[in-house]
Amino acid sequence: MVKDKYTAVWVSHSSSGDFLKCPRAYYLNNVYKDPMSGHKIKLISPPLALGQVVHEVIESLSVIPVKNRFTDPLMIKFESAWKKISGERGGFKDKDQEYLYKKRGMEMIERVVKNPGPLLNLAVKITMDLPYFWLSEEDNIILCGKIDWLEYLPKSDSVHIIDFKTGKADEKPGSLQLPIYHLLVHHCQKRKVTRASYWYLDKSSGLTEVALPDLQKAKEEVLSIAKEMKLARVLGRFICREKTGCYACRPFEAILRKEAKRVGYDEYNNDVYIIDQKNSSEEEGSKIL
């Protein structure tokens, strides 16, 4: 088969996670386009807005040489980034709720400033806007995704995958995130991956190191799910496993029923919506620098 990235099925950690939770949610969040605008639809909520801002601030450091990385105060960057999701654009129901989330974000940034750890070391930046590689040319499937941080380890000329966590819960055992990140980093830059860690910014000043998944097993597991996703797209069959809809797809169904409010667009020109909380039962290549 001739490689054609425009007809390929693109798979990421977030899209595969959507599919595993609910095929209908996967369809509405990753495939469906509003017939009026021609845009995909996305939901924003306070936890998502918080994570978006904190990641933006910290990840922006990776393109700055080490000696200049903390020249500009991170809190100023945080305040600037927060303005983009303030109010209903971040899904906040009122100023009190926004204050609580913003306070959490400021505490995370302050924790990083006081304990920068690996952020003071050399970093590898994959130069692709969206890192990707052909997971299977035969099946026309591409694996893609952005990695939060790659620390360069000069003694071994290798890299250390670091993922920033802004939620309160630890990453669940069996998550596909690390297998996918390991595959991406292995294929999208030349250095070997020798370490991987999570940084739970909401509660920890340091890293939690985790075991690296085996690359072959990771590929087999991710490809198996990717093939299911492709089959669903070919058949046009995206059915929720619960007859009345599940927690994952119900918010998107609310958008289709015109029960959500559009609050703007994201960086990919997707229509961004918030669910009216009063009427909803839902919970919330490379270079070294």
UniProtKB/TrEMBL annotation:
UniProt-listed Pfam families: PDDEXK_1
Domain of life, per lineage: Bacteria
InterPro entries: PDDEXK-like_dom_sf, PDDEXK_AddAB-type
Domain (PD-(D/E)XK endonuclease-like): residue spans on this chain: 11-249
Name of the protein in question: PD-(D/E)XK endonuclease-like domain-containing protein
Source organism per UniProt: Candidatus Gottesmanbacteria bacterium RIFCSPHIGHO2_02_FULL_40_13
